[in-house]
Amino acid sequence: RAAIAAGAGLTTVACPKELIPILQSLVPAAMCMDIADAARSRPAYDVLALGPGLGQEAAAWENILALYDAGKPSVWDADALNLLAQRPFRLGERAVMTPHPGEAARLLGIPAAQIAQDRFAAAQALRERFGCAALLKGDVSVLAAAGEPMFSLSANGTPALAKGGSGDVLAGMTAGLLAAGLPQGRTAAQMAALAVWLHGEAADRCAEQRSMTAMLPQDLFEELGYLLTELEG
Description:
The protein is of the alpha/beta class. Helices cover about 50% and strands about 10% of the residues. It has eleven helices and eight strands. It has helices spanning about 1-5, 20-25, 35-40, 60-65, 80-85, 100-110, 110-115, 120-130, 165-180, 190-210, 220-230, and strands at about 10-15, 30-35, 50, 75, 95, 135, 140-145, 150-155. It has a six-stranded mixed beta sheet with strand order 3-4-5-6-7-8, with helices on both faces. Strands 1-2 form a two-stranded parallel sheet. Helix 5 runs parallel beside helix 6 and helix 10 packs across helix 11. It starts with a helix and ends with a helix. The mean pLDDT is about 95.
């Protein structure tokens, strides 16, 4: 839903066959396909988003390798990052990773407390180790752009984004914006920076209207629509 709301055209979910009826009911605008079929014959795609709800079984990593194309933009989140921490390799400048501090600590093999001590150093270390844009999530998110000696900061957002599922929304938004930005030649880092700002701004508006206590991750979609209407106007 986040990818579609952020500008992706045709969105397909590769998942276990038994989950397809559930997902098609929850997200009728998305197509679904059996992950076994997708892994055997990789479908054409512009952007690949990996991780939320994936699990950490060996088969999940095999599916990642079957679907991943280093020449295409990709977004790595959640269990895709936990699996990558066990089998690290350089993802390339067209990839974006979106770890929270715990995932970043596993990726770098250091204590989580060390991430909190210097978030800039942690984001830079992620960028250098994996060769991709590294978006380190937190109360102030830090983006280290691949191939560039620069950082981007985003200080908007609300503590309500600590609720489970909020990071999944950000990963989907990043994938959708990457898909929408490809024809304009936008970089992965530029689209990630836009995603984190839109995510935080939509959350601020949701919290103001619904309260931080009642706000849910799925509330972001409606606010994102209003926000994009303003920006496009």
